[in-house]
Amino acid sequence: MPAAVAAAAAAAASGGALLLYLLLTCRPQPAPEAERGREEDETSPLLSGSGAARGRGAESDREEEPWPHREPVTCCEAAAVAVRTARRTWELTVGRWGLHGLAFGIRRHMKRQGNLQHEYSGNDCRQLRGHQAHAEVSSLLEYLKLCMFFSKKSFSAFLKFGGYKQEDILIHKARSRLMQPSFALVCDKRTKCFLLFIRGAISTKERLTAATAAEVPFHHIILSEGQISNVVLGYAHCGMLAGARWIARLTIPHLRNKIQEFPGYQIKVIGHSMGAGIGAILTYILREHYEFSSCSCLAFAPPACMTWELAESGKEFITSLVNRNDVVPSFSKVSTESLRSEVLVSSKLDDVQDHFHHGLFSSISQRVAFFRSHMLSISHSTGKITDHDSSISEPLLKDSADRIQPPANAHSIDRSRQQVVTSEERVTLVNSEDVTCVMSAVSGFTSQEDSDSTGALDTQQSSTTTNEGEALNQNGTRNDKQKEPISASGSRQFFPPGRIIHMVGQPPPDSTPDEGTINNEVIGIYETPRDLYCKIRLAPNMIKEHYMPSYISTMESSLEQLQKDDDNSVCAASNDL
């Protein structure tokens, strides 16, 4: 019996060692040329994210193994990609930030910067009003509820909520794998659309797909009347691009058959979070086929998944909706590096302030201790005359000179020590002069430190303003400066795709600054410029407001506000008549 237990333990240990070896050493193998060519033909006849570009990227980056451009086929490939993703995620988060920065630095920086939601309603943003905005938000809310039922509820509940039958489901993949998300293609006869729902990152494998955020080449072919009119070069999220290509290979045959059967139907790709990013990239791929050139995408809480030029080229067919302080649309490698720099600077400012207060308190304590000891030594003196070389006062003077600089009126202290003490009144007079010197020294030290720190901050702010002005003069407008944002590490800034609509919580017009307005916020709908999403704006509820229930609640509030504004405008028009 013990021998059998030992044999089983040895076998388990051997199996664990073999699995660890495979995880650490295996790498995805490139697909054969014939299979790769067949996959590209099925995905896009115009070489979407062309293999030639991948070849140039791999050739220029031979030192580092290129990330996979397709989903892993074998378990060994999936394990290798998962381990590589976990290692990269660790290096970019805990490995670079540290637990102290993650636990305290971000929180302190969040408190320092305050609420920045108002930046999404600035002069560069266009507010959407009227009946057209109300109709658009109502349509988006309907599709978001369908997407939530598909992602969070059972498939039977999704069919019941949407009023679909089993024959309306063209294809459904319920089980997700690495770079193979769950999705469903539905024929909606009510709206005369083919709806393609893509689930977000819910399972562990889907989260690994979202974490595989390396930048890989992806190029989009723009068609005009069946002919190539332009080519947009750029980079995209590795895991989402692989998932989009996998969905495209599975859905294109079904869509071709159904388009011939229902020629007037449109194609809409709908997703939330990671599903929104995959859906946006998938829309680019589908539109490279002439029969799918009218495909559009509704991206809710889309992640930053592509470079500037690609994101700008999708404004006509991709609508991205962002809720309040949702952090995902601005979360990328470059923006996290910028946030880390801001947190470090904020921590340094806090340390300097703490050091200043500590140094001020320490200096005051030393001065008070010195004069207390001096006054005690005078009051306990038995002689009537203090000699110039007295062992009571001279060591204290030398010690204080070594520790701190004497104040401007310190000569009065030396003069008082050399005077003759003949009575208790003279002792009291000396003590009062010492206390006066202490107070003047403390006030002089405080004013000097405040002026020095203020001058340093003013100099830093003026230099920062000068640098920003020089950057604007050299590069033109702010939008032009953001078109090619590359960090010091060589990484490219990713942005949310297409046209961006942001729901912003604003205080009521008649509110006062001291009045709490959190529960009485007015939701405004704004079309925002893309360069606002190259910076992470921290907020206490930035994670909670990413989820679909929060989106639905905010959209319902915005619909009420739009309806109220519409009614007020109608009443004002009738009164004018």
In short:
This protein has 577 residues and is an alpha/beta fold. The protein is built from 18 helices and 13 strands.
Strand content: 5-15%
Percentage of residues assigned to helices: 40-55%
Distance between the termini: 99 Å
Give the tally of β-strands.
13
What does the overall shape look like? globular
Radius of gyration: 34 Å
- Tally of DSSP helical segments: 18
In terms of quaternary structure, the protein is single chain
Q: Strand order within the widest sheet?
A: 1-13-12-11-10-9-4-3-2
The unreliable regions are 21-63, 381-482
**Biggest pleated sheet:** 9 strands, mixed
Q: What class, by secondary structure content? A: alpha/beta
> What do the pLDDT scores average to?
74
Describe the SSE topology.
Blueprint: H1 2-25, H2 33-43, H3 51-60, H4 75-92, H5 94-97, H6 99-113, E1 126-127, H7 130-152, H8 155-162, E2 169-173, E3 183-188, E4 193-198, H9 204-211, E5 215-217, E6 220-224, E7 227-232, E8 235-237, H10 238-261, E9 266-272, H11 274-286, E10 296-300, H12 308-313, E11 318-323, H13 333-379, H14 394-403, H15 411-417, H16 424-475, H17 478-481, E12 499-506, E13 522-527, H18 548-576
Account of the protein in words:
This protein is α/β, with parallel strands linked by helices. Helices cover 54% and strands 12% of the residues. The model is unreliable at 21-63 and 381-482 (pLDDT under 50). The longest helix is centred in the last third of the chain and has 52 residues, at 424-475. Helix 7 (130-152) packs antiparallel against helix 18 and helix 13 (333-379) runs antiparallel to helix 16 (424-475). The strands form three sheets. The protein has a nine-stranded mixed sheet with strand order 1-13-12-11-10-9-4-3-2, with helices on both faces. A two-stranded antiparallel sheet has the order 5-8. The protein has helices spanning 2-25, 33-43, 51-60, 75-92, 94-97, 99-113, 130-152, 155-162, 204-211, 238-261, 274-286, 308-313, 333-379, 394-403, 411-417, 424-475, 478-481, 548-576, and strands at 126-127, 169-173, 183-188, 193-198, 215-217, 220-224, 227-232, 235-237, 266-272, 296-300, 318-323, 499-506, 522-527. This is Fungal lipase-type domain-containing protein.
